[in-house]
Design a protein that fits this description.
Number of helices: 14
Strand order of the largest sheet: 5-4-8-7-6
Number of strands: 16
Strand content: 15-25%
Structural class: alpha+beta
Length: 485
């Protein structure tokens, strides 16, 4: 009868002996566990042996048996317990079938699936395979990571439509207008066509999907994360646009510089020649006027060259900064005096400042003066005769601010993004009406950044512009003792 190893084998049919090549002497009188050399702690064997101890019928138990010649055969056995008339257990009577060929075929399929799984796991992109019924057959880990939010639905045997619906419902993929069912229908149509690759947005990432039909009616899909590629494309496009903008700005700058440099030079040469040749006699009062014109032309020429040199120094990091404690109201007042003549020539009214604050900064006096003059000059330059231009200073928790306001022509919204770019002078129509290099605002912004601050422009076409320079709070200092005395 045997113990925990199960009942002993007492008889084998001739057909089983012939089909398996098993020798009766290797099995008779031994339990199946002893004859196979299997381990009793194997889960399948442990369950089978318990059934035998409980005298229960069993069906389809498969195990391996190694023959005397070393060949391994796989047997599927079934059995029912046999009892005598008094209910005493007599043993098991059963059947056995050699399923070696079936097992080997299944093993070949399993190995093929393992090789296929290993191959698709090696792919750097997401791989997925559906059968002819649109049920998931397999996918790789990369595919699961791409669709982590719907991982619960990505199980073998799941229908494609159910997986896609779960993907939209979870927010894994964006449904246009929030209509999940419409998005599912559109995705199913693309899946059925399985033609040209298309792109989908998934968790703020761009996935390119290519699907093809297999010969048995299934579908194989390749999911490629092209988010970085899209970002690089966008960056390259932006860089190209910036380069194009810079090239246009440089071309406009060269054309403008040709005018800005030649005009005062021609004036200087023409007036100097008139004086030299005494065209109006030896002591004509017109020579005095010409001398003034030469001076103004020279000053304009110097201003143009100074802007170019300042920008060059700032860009190369050679602009020397000399910090000291300065009075912001005093600096602003001095700048207002400098632009008074320009305002009078254009008929622009300078609004007297009402400071009311005694603001002191640790800053570069020349840089603050240059920023203030640039902003004031722009306000006067782009304001029609009779218009107003003025300046205010203030402070808050962020720091100190200096605002120049005008009632001028304003700036078109399309010109605002490039306003601080070197050589930018607003719209083409505005640039033609005014002189200058287009470097003033670019220089001013750079100088404010050197102070740890910033420069902002707020403008409405036809109503005016407000340019505000912000100084950080750490730049603000108490009134010096010497100044207080």
């Amino acid at each position: 009868m045997g113990d925990g190893a199960g009942p002993e084998i007492h008889w084998l049919s001739d057909r089983l002996i012939v089909s398996t090549g098993i020798r009766p002497q290797d099995l008779l009188g031994r339990s199946r566990l002893e004859a196979t050399g299997a381990q009793a702690d194997d889960p399948a064997w442990r369950t089978h042996l318990q059934m035998l101890r409980d005298r229960l019928p069993f069906r389809g138990f498969v195990y391996a048996y190694k023959r005397h010649d070393g060949a391994v055969r796989w047997l599927r056995v079934s059995g029912v317990p046999v009892f005598d008339g008094e209910g005493r257990f007599q043993g098991y009577r059963g059947t056995g079938t050699d399923v070696t060929a079936e097992y080997q075929a299944e093993e070949r399929v399993r190995l093929a699936q393992e090789r296929l799984q290993a191959a698709v796991e090696f792919l750097p992109d997401g791989f997925v395979l559906y059968d002819a019924e649109d049920r998931l057959v397999l996918c790789n880990e990369r595919y699961r990571k791409m669709h982590a939010q719907t991982a619960a639905a990505i199980q073998p045997g799941m229908k494609f439509e159910d997986i896609i619906r779960a993907s939209y419902q979870s927010g894994e993929q964006d449904a246009a207008g929030g209509d999940v069912e419409q998005a599912v229908r559109r995705r199913l149509e693309l899946h059925r066509q399985a033609r040209a690759p298309f792109e989908m947005i998934s968790r703020q990432r761009v996935i390119r999907i290519a699907e093809r039909r297999t010969s048995d009616g299934g579908t194989v899909g390749l999911h490629v994360d092209i988010t970085e590629l899209k970002r690089r494309e966008a960056a390259l496009l932006q860089a190209k646009q910036q380069a194009d903008t810079a090239n246009r700005a440089k071309s406009e700058f060269l054309a403008n510089m040709s005018h800005e440099l030649r005009t005062p030079l021609n004036a200087i040469i023409g007036f100097a020649e008139s004086i030299e040749r005494r065209l109006f006699g030896e002591s004509s009062p017109r020579y005095h006027d010409y001398a003034g014109d030469i001076r103004r032309s020279g000053e304009h020429l110097l201003a143009v060259i100074s802007d170019i040199l300042d920008m060059s120094k700032i860009e190369s990091g050679k602009y020397e900064f000399h910090e000291e404690v300065i009075s912001l109201p005093d600096t602003v007042s001095a700048c207002l005096l400098m632009v008074r003549g320009q305002a009078e020539e254009r008929g622009v009214i300078l609004v007297p400042p009402q400071f009311g604050l005694d603001l002191w900064l640790r800053a570069d006096r020349r840089a603050v003066t240059q920023v203030t003059l640039n902003l004031l000059s722009n306000a006067v330059k782009f304001t029609e005769p009779g218009g107003l231009a003025g300046i205010e200073i203030g402070m808050d928790g962020e720091g100190a601010r200096l605002s120049v306001k005008d009632t001028g022509i304003g700036i078109e919204p399309a010109s605002l993004p490039t306003l601080f770019e070197p050589f930018s002078r607003g719209s083409a129509s505005t640039a033609r009406k005014t002189d200058g290099t287009g470097l003033g605002l670019a220089i001013s912004r750079k100088l404010m950044e050197r102070h740890g601050g910033r420069l902002e422009i707020d403008s409405t076409p036809g109503k005016g512009t407000t340019a505000t320079a912000f100084f950080p709070a750490e730049r603000m200092v108490a009134r010096p003792a010497l100044a207080a005395s």
